[in-house]
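Figure 2 data, in text form.
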Amino acid sequence: MIKGTMRRDLYPELYRVENSHWWHRQKRRVIHQLIRRYNPQTGKVLDVGCGAGKILWELQQLGWQSFGVDTVLNQGRKRGLDIKKTDLQTQPLPYPANHFDLVICLDTLEHMANDRRLAAEMARVAKPGGIIIISVPAYQWLFSYWDSMLGHFRRYTKKTLLRSTVKSGLKLKFASYFFSFLLLPAVFVRLIKIIIRQKQQSDFAADPLPILTHGVVGFFGSLELLWLNRLAIPFGLSLAGVFEKK
């Protein structure tokens, strides 16, 4: 596959599992909490790389005027969303400057050959004082076969995420890792796969550790959300940054 491009056959699967899979549900809980904390008033929101559009649809139900861009439209449009087809690698975002109150970019920046260009585009379309929320996979040393299958160029730390964003006219307000309770299990699974040379599946796509049921993940995820209300988490499988347009 072309690096930077998510396999098109994965979009229907993403649409199917977004409602129920614990990974997607917990990620949305984190993002919703950050939105409530840093941009509680509804307005216009743009989801950059919206995929199957679940969180954008949820924001629409909460009163946001919701817009999305992606390279594949079918799955998001099934939810009745306003999504424009855009090659995020090369094309500008198809909206005027200073247009959105909130821009979210969830697990998309790592697909960009030039992530700084996309960060600058998000800054351009956000209103002055607008909020940009970015989530990315964490730690390059966790880069795996599945990252390659998803079209990732890289994984991030706080330092490398800042390097890709702050020169674009964005001011960091908050950054934290999340899925902290899954870091050690992920390392364990990764080591086992290295030993047995298995590479065909995402580390957690099929709940490889039986103890990690939806209920257990929901419990630890709720504890993590309580922590995020007060402090940044110093480690985790994913990283979220909240930025303000200067």
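Caption note: Residues 46 and 103 are 5 Å apart (CA to CA).
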